[in-house]
Amino acid sequence: MRFVTIVQASAFVPVWLRVLLLMGAGAKVWGAGIYSGCYFGSKDISMGVGTFVNRGVLFDGTAPITLGRQVAVGHRAQFVTSTHDIGPASGRGGRVVHRPIVIGDGCWIGAGAIILPGVTVGDGCVIGAGAVVTRDCDPNGLYAGSPASRVRDLDPAPSAG
After folding, report:
1. pLDDT, tens only, 52-94
2. Which pLDDT tens digit goes with each residue over 94-133?
3. pTM of the predicted model over 0.85
4. Which residue numbers are catalytic?
5. Contact 99, 117 (CB under 8 A)
6. Residue-level pLDDT at 132
7. What angle do CA 29, 39, 23 make, to 5 degrees?
8. One-letter-per-residue 3-state SS of the chain
9. pLDDT, tens digit (0-9, with 9 covering 90-100), for 18-38
């Protein structure tokens, strides 16, 4: 996967070839648009049809990461699936733990947002730019801040487009 990550990250690789390279390595990204500079820590990534990943996004990938259909991910967002238990005073960064991340259908993850291990973001959410998401987000909400909190409810009805 390391070689594929290096090659696919190049700005010289077209989007369609980037997707094929990632799929060849075992990622489930058919129908997604993935732009240059993204880092994939493993093949345990799944993206729904119509998902768009902008430049420089980090997918830690020590645990599964699932993005639903029609998800938009802004520049330099981070999906971090690994953390540490708090250890003793002699070394606070204790045992490494890995927890999956799930992003529901229709979400928008703003530029520079950080989604931390074990988080599920419900369908139809917007995560504001630079937000740090430390816990689950209920569907159809705008979340912002550090740690992210629900700022307001969003209309759950699909558009008539």
Report:
1. 999 999 999 899 999 999 999 999 999 999 999 999 999 999 9
2. 999 999 999 999 999 999 999 999 999 999 999 999 999 9
3. yes
4. 84
5. yes
6. 98
7. 25
8. CHHHHHHHCCCCCCHHHHHHHHHHCCCECCCCEECCCCEECCCCEEECCCCEECCCCEECCCCCEEECCCCEECCCCEECCEEEEECCCCCCEEEEEECCEEECCCCEECCCCEECCCCEECCCCEECCCCEECCCECCCEEEEECCEEEEEECCCCCCCC
9. 999 999 999 999 999 999 999
Does 161 score more than 60 pLDDT? no
Residue 11, exposed/middle/buried by CB under 10 A (0-12, 13-18, 19+)?
exposed
How many residues belong to the chain? Answer: 161
Q: Are strands 120-121 and 82-86 parallel, antiparallel or unpaired?
A: unpaired
Phi, psi (deg, nearest 5) at residue 20: -65, -40
CA count, 13 A, side-chain hemisphere, 51: 24
Q: What is the CATH T-level fold of the domain 2-153, as seen in this structure?
A: UDP N-Acetylglucosamine Acyltransferase; domain 1 (2.160.10)
How far are the Cα atoms of 16, 90, 93, 123 from residue 70, in angstroms, in the given order? 17, 46, 36, 10
